[in-house]
Amino acid sequence: MAFLDPIRWMSYALPLNDFGILSIEIPSSTFTNWKRDLRLVITRSAFGTQSIEGETVWLVRRIVKKLLTSGEQVTQITAYSAAELLRRRIVAYAAGSSKADKTDKADDMLKAIVRENMGNLATIVGRDWTSYMTVQANTAAGASVTKQFSRRVVLDVLQEIAQDTAQQGNPIYFDVIAPSETTLEFRTYATLRGMDHSFPHGIQPIVFSPKFGNLTDIRLSTDWADEITYVYALGQGVEDNRIVKVAGDSTRISASPFGRIERVRDARNLSNEDSVQSEADTYLETGKPKRTLSGIIMDTSSARYGLHWRLGDKVTAEFDNEQFDCIINQIQVRIEDGTETIEARLTSI
């Protein structure tokens, strides 16, 4: 419809397994025909190629018109990346039904949930968005997962399943991408959302380190504060007839005379014993002590965003004489007065 030019400023952030947020401020005269869910596209021309930034498009969700003290009228636009569509649907099926109680490979389960609640397998009239968004073919690339999730927001369910796979050491990522400016597709990614650039065996390895000037705001943490070493998961039923499953870590329990740290996982919505056991196992995993490195990586001449690294890539970070394999899990871009500032957050695996 139009090119948004000039732009006073623009900023956006894109995370893994969630939707991004875009904010733009333009003179109000630049464009006036704003509508709900109007599609915005950012293209990046760099290093000899042109691409859709972040592999996504943005849907307008808020318009604010302002009159500045200078007398200039401006319009501020807030838009969400296409992955926000996953937040607009619930799993609209009864507990115990095949569409709300599943055991499957994690990546295929995610795709089934999307197909059944916003795709060609949606059984309620008006819920099928196939004309606008397709779903990638199944690949059975993830770990096996058992999950019950009736009447819950689709995005929340997908995020929990992805978190479960990460706890098992077989992470699955998902996104709604834009193969072109006018098409959308739900996709999953096994192990990595991006490329492996870790040192020394990755493709064109990258090391982020304070000594190279491309890593800052570093946090290296060893944390036992929320440790759990024994879990009771409580499913449906009452007293002696209640489903109870346990999970424990004998190694961590024996590491200290006070090492048995017990917690209860409320799984009263689950009637399947395997599902309750899965809740116990997953909750135990979340209670492991955490040793993590996080930081902000800077766009530098030797580590250029879009050329050397992108969202979801695996890289290596170096700090305090240690090296950590990390995932770039968020990018943040701001453009103002013709200057672009790019930062990204990484977290150790």
Radius of gyration: 23 Å
Number of helices: 4
- Distance between the ends: 43 Å
Class computed from helices, strands and strand pairing: mainly beta
Largest sheet: 11 strands, mixed
Strand content: 35-45%
Shape: globular
Instruction: Count all strands and give the number.
Output: 21
Which consecutive residue ranges, at least 5 long each, have pLDDT under 50? none
Mean pLDDT: 94
Q: Roughly how much helix do the residues carry, as a percent range?
A: 10-25%
What order do the SSEs take from the amino end to the carboxyl end, as H and E?
A: EEEEEEEEHEEHEEEEEEHEHEEEE
Question: Could you characterize what this model shows?
Answer:
This protein is mainly beta. 13% of the residues lie in helices and 40% in strands. The protein is built from four helices and 21 strands. The strands form five sheets. Strands 1, 2, 3, 6, 7, 13, 14, 18, 19, 20 and 21 form an eleven-stranded mixed sheet that branches. Strands 9-12-11 form a three-stranded mixed sheet. It has a three-stranded mixed sheet with strand order 16-15-17. A hairpin with a 5-residue loop joins strand 1 and strand 2. Helix 1 runs antiparallel to helix 2. The chain is globular and about 70 Å long.
